[in-house]
TrEMBL record:
Keywords: Signal. It holds the Pfam family Thioredoxin_7. The keyword Hydrolase does not apply. Belongs to the AGR family. InterPro entries: AGR/TXD (IPR051099), Thioredoxin-like_sf (IPR036249). This is AGR3 protein. The keyword Signal applies. GO terms for cellular component: endoplasmic reticulum. PANTHER family: ANTERIOR GRADIENT PROTEIN 3 (PTHR15337:SF5), ANTERIOR GRADIENT PROTEIN-RELATED (PTHR15337). Residues 1-23 form the signal peptide. SUPFAM superfamilies: Thioredoxin-like. The gene is Agr3. GO terms for molecular function: dystroglycan binding.
Amino acid sequence: IMLHSTLALSLLLIAVTSNFAMAIKKEKRAPQTLSRGWGDEITWVQTYEEGLYQAKKSNKPLMVIHHLEDCQYCQALKKAFAENEEIQEMAQNNFIMLNLMHETTDKNLSPDGQYVPRIMFVDPSLTVRADITGRYSNRLYTYEPQDMTFLIENMKKALRLIQTEL
């Protein structure tokens, strides 16, 4: 009987540890699927709510990228964004990152309409920074592939505003 229960316990332990190992592997792979091509080295949050929570907790701004799979402008922006080392590095280290293929219930994230691509910043105080805009007056929060320098400036601005205002 003793041998029997030891064997059962060992089998149970093996089952638990292999499941645990699989869970760890899964955990490591998660960001890749959430990145959707915007940057595999970046840790992406899954939902807007999670993004707000992480921003508040870490005192980092949240960057929200609205996009759609079949939108050519989104694809072009994604490529420029993913290939820009400075953006990738800042996104990795200084921001909570979220890319969304659907709208949130927060109307503050679409102050001038629900177009894509659209990039908005949310302060750790959970204030949507409607004052951090791109170059185009008809779509304030859109960026084009050639606007990466401008986006970098806006990312720096989002970081600067935290330090001065909070």
